[in-house]
Amino acid sequence: MVVTWSTMDNTNSSVVEYGIGGLVKRAKAVPIEFIDGGSKKRKIYIHKVKLSDLQPGRRYMYHCGSKWGWSSIYTFVPMQEGVNWSPQLAVFGDMGNINAQSLPRLQQETQRGMYDAILHVGDFAYDMNSDNAEVGDEFMRQIETIAAYARFRMPGNSDSMMYSFNMGPIHFISISTEYYYFLGYGIKEVVNQYYWLENDLKEATKPENRKVRPWIIVYGHRPMYCSNLNEDDCTFHETFVRVGLPFLNWFGLEDLFYNYGVDMEIWAHEHSYERLWPIYNYTVYNGSLEEPYRNPGAPVHIITGSAGCQEGRENFVPTMPEWSAFRSSDYGYARLQVFNSTHLYMEQISDDKEGEVIDRLWLIKDHHGPYPKR
After folding, report:
1. Is 123 helix (H, G, I), strand (E, B) or coil?
2. Which pTM value belongs to this model?
3. Which pLDDT tens digit goes with each residue over 321-332?
4. Nearest C-alpha neighbor of 294 from the set 232, 360, 362, 243
5. In a 3-state reduction of DSSP, which class is residue 15?
6. Domain ranges of the chain
């Protein structure tokens, strides 16, 4: 477990005091100076402290700071070891400082211990660097009420913009879709990410690895498909993330995910919720008419980008495409739980409807691996 915080002044030390029955243990590190790229060139000191000797499943109390001052006292539960447990996660994207409608409900649920981790699938604060990063500071203070209690993961929240991690029977892969849309910086990052991703998938799909962690879930910000009423890339047939760089069609990700048998792809960016039928190259490959999500012939795509921000909601095209299974413009977020090697459950919560579950999905896989050659 790593605890991260920031200060405006250099405290010369980063300290976390923690323990099960009291603040009896102490871990230390040295803060790192960060100079913001805005006009004020603000100095911000980043503190990262790793906690060790933790007992999985036990609730710890902790606070962070130094002799110059301490945070409030928070609690967390170390992640269980191994693969034989059932992780529960909250999943959402596109939450801003203004109109963060889902945040109070997420705060309550996180502090009640409902979630082992939070996946924020991109677009925060609007925008983190605005007003010399003061908007970002406010966003970090705002999400402290959930991030201080559960692991908070997002695209690019490690030393790299892409990374992977294991949680129980799941192998999660976080990618940056932004590389495909800011080509003024060159295509190097697109290429690097593609080959890193291919190597990660090769390792994750080795028989000995997929046997113990059968579920592979990828998440990134901009979706390959959507049926929203706008001109975002996902509304076009050949989206950059799906088929690759414009005109060249190099380094597209849909074939890669299909060939390595990725089970689920989670996206945001559209300020709405949409569940797709199992899909590859605009063709639906349901498991069967009665049970479309039992042993489907392609990955399942989920778009959950309606946590709430100043840009409001997204509407949909009037006629639902044949590959779209469910759509909603309600503010809300998703819950994800993997029960075992065969059963994954996901539901979408409507904050507009006071926490009502508006959509449910059971993804059942009797076997995991590459999909049929098409």
Report:
1. coil
2. 0.95
3. 999 999 999 999
4. 362
5. strand
6. 2-76, 88-364
